[in-house]
Amino acid sequence: MGVHRRDFIKLLGFTGTIVALGGLTPPLIKLVSPRFPKPASTEYPRSKLVWEEGSPVKASELEINNAYVFEYPMKGIFSILINVGDENGNPIRIPPLQVPLLMQSLQEEPETPTQESIQDLTTAGRGGFYEIPGGVGPFQSIIAYNGVCQHFACQYPQLTYIPPGEKPPQELPEATRGSVLFCKCHGSVYDPYRGAAVLRGPAQRPLPTIILEWSQDTDELYAAGLAGNTIAGKFCNTCGELVGDKVIVRPATTA
Ligand code: FES
After folding, report:
1. Exposed end of the chain (fewer CB within 10 Å): N or C?
2. Inter-CA distances, 166 with 26, 72, 179, 182, 255, Å
3. What residues contact 120, with CB distance under 8 A and at least 6 apart?
4. Sheet holding 180-183, edge to edge
5. Kind of pairing, strands 78-83 and 159-162?
6. 112: which DSSP letter?
7. Which of 155, 181, 188, 234 to mutate to test the pocket of ligand 1 (most atoms within 8 A of CB)?
8. From the CA of 168, how far away is ligand 1's center (Å)?
9. Domain layout of the chain by residue ranges
10. pTM exceeding the 0.85 threshold for the entire prediction
């Protein structure tokens, strides 16, 4: 049975329409479908850390056991910058280490990080590890973490830094010493000496680490990426309006 000429012309027209629409389909879907989020940038900004008046932040200007904040990697998302030290104000070197992506709360915490304690940490992990490059600056003691709690995404200033010698509002296990990052919302505690590992839940994941760069020549600092988990409550770590090539650093409010 042959195709009638009029039907054949109709078929040609229909096919042509489909072919023409085929080329337009993806942008049309993007335009009309709310299920397609804004595509994420694949690259993190490299942002120079500057003070409010515009001068560059020098590593040697960051006081030991003080915390500072800056927006990174997206506007409105704070990260916490710390020059970590001991109770006597001596800087503590943060070595490169492997941090488990997912871990249970540690019940015991050594006073200072040792090779053995790092090993304990890495073997406690489930679901893989990520590497952090460790601290930067003259003593390799400057480190930064994302300030959004990995439990229910409370963020700085609810997530705050508590220096050595100051007690968090809730008791920690007997063996816990030194500074901590503490979330006031439900009491999660993170370890700034060891990749923001969880010292006490309910959070189960370390805070993402901000990758810092330090220029030995100029003593200046840059934020240049992020390692670890996705920022809690976010679709991805670059979804949103990314910060520019400079970010303002301010002293953090205290607990
Ligand atoms: S949101 Fe931080 S402990 Fe719940």
Report:
1. N
2. 56, 27, 8, 12, 10
3. 106
4. 159-162, 180-183, 189-191, 197-200
5. unpaired
6. S
7. 188
8. 14
9. 1-36, 47-251
10. no
Q: Looking at this protein, which amino acid is placed at residue 242?
A: L
pLDDT at 167: 74
* Cis geometry, peptide bond prior to residue 202 (ω within 30 degrees of 0): yes
Cα distance between residue 115 and residue 163, in whole Å:
23
Pocket lining: 154 vs ligand 1, CB cutoff 6 Å: yes
Mean pLDDT by 10 residues, the chain (255 residues): 46 41 37 38 86 97 96 96 92 89 51 47 57 94 96 94 81 65 91 89 92 96 94 88 96 77
- Provide the pLDDT for residue 173: 58
pLDDT of 34: 37
Q: What is the whole-number distance in angstroms between the Cα of residue 100 and the centre of ligand 1?
A: 19
**Nearest Cα residue to atom 1 of ligand 1:** 152
